[in-house]
Amino acid sequence: YGLEVNSLVDERRDPLKAADAAARYLRDLYNIYQDWHLVIAAYNCGPGNVAKATRYAGGGKKDYWQIYPYLPSETRSYVPIFIAANYVMNYYREHNMCPMQPTVTVATDTIMVDKRINLQQVSELLNISLDELRFLNPQYRQDIVPGNIKPYPLVLPFNQLSAYIDN
C-alpha cells in the first residue's frame, strides 16, 4: 500500500501514512468479504488464511463464527478483542470510564528535508530532546533522515521551525 520499509525508514510507524494505508487495505478487504468480522480477521492473519479457514469449514461459509475454529489462534483472539475495544470506545460512559487525555499538546509542522541529517544533530541545534524528535518522527529507524536519496518529511515543534530553517 505504498509504505516504504528499509533499513533507515519504516513508514508503517508513521501514524498518518500507516492509518491511510490501513484504511485503504480495510476498504479493499471489505470489498472482498462484505463482512466486518471477516475483514478484521483477514487484516490480522491475511486473506490467504481466511480463505484456507473457509475451505476447512466446508467452503462457502461467509460468517466469521463458522470459520472461527479453523483460523490461527492469534486471530481467534484478535477479532473478539477488537469487538471488545470497539464496545469500550462507544460505551465508556455507561461504565464510568474516562478517555485519557493526550500528553503531547505541542503544535507541529512538517518540512521536507533534502539532505541526510541525524536527529541527534537536530536535537542539539534546536535544543529539543532526542526522545521528542523520535516521538514526532517514528518512521526513522536509526535516527537518520536520508534526505540525500529523496526529500523526506521532518516533523518539528512549530515554534522551532524557523530556527531549523535559519540554521
Structure description:
This protein is 50% helix and 11% strand. It is mainly alpha-helical. Helix 1 (15-33) crosses helix 2 (36-45), helix 2 crosses helix 3 and helix 2 packs across helix 5. The chain is elongated.
Sketch the topology as an H/E string, one letter per element. Answer: HHHHHEEHHEEH
Q: What number is the mean pLDDT?
A: 94
Quaternary arrangement of the chains shown?
Answer: single chain
Give the DSSP E fraction (strand runs of 2 or more residues).
Answer: 5-15%
Strand pairing plus helix content: what structural class? mainly alpha
- Describe the biggest sheet? 2 strands, antiparallel
Short description:
By secondary structure, the protein is mainly alpha-helical.
Task: Jot down its keywords.
167 residues, mainly alpha, two-stranded antiparallel sheet, 8 helices, 4 strands
Outline the fold blueprint.
Elements: H1 15-33, H2 36-45, H3 47-56, H4 64-67, H5 73-91, E1 108-113, E2 116-118, H6 119-126, H7 130-136, E3 144-146, E4 152-157, H8 161-166
Antiparallel strand pairs: 1-4, 2-3
Helix pairs in contact: 1-2, 2-3, 2-5
